[in-house]
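re: the backbone from monday

yeah here it is again, tokenized this time
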């Protein structure tokens, strides 16, 4: 299983949505916010470029990825920050990246 897929599955499980939801075109908040968190994790943990992440998420434009990562930082939502901290620890400990 590739590393991007692991991040997608971890995010989907945490937020109780599907991987298909994460890569879909829906803009519903309960899907879009976890998707943006997954963008950030792919960029931060995997050191993937914006265009590479965009392809992973259904061929979005790279600017969409950049804006999504910035949105997570700007929101400073406690639940998102808790998820991101748990995800970082999980992937660094369990997956070695």
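seq for it, each position gets an aa:
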């Amino acid at each position: 299983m590739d590393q991007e897929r692991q991040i997608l599955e971890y995010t989907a499980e945490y937020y109780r949505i599907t991987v298909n939801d994460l890569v879909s075109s829906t803009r519903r908040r309960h899907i879009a916010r976890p998707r943006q968190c997954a963008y950030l994790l792919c960029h931060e943990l995997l050191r993937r470029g914006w265009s590479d992440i965009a392809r992973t998420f259904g061929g979005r434009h790279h600017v969409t990825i950049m804006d999504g990562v910035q949105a997570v930082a700007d929101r400073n939502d406690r639940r998102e920050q808790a998820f991101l901290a748990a995800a970082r620890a999980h992937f660094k400990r369990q997956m070695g990246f």
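The chain has a mean pLDDT of 93. The chain has six helices and no strands.
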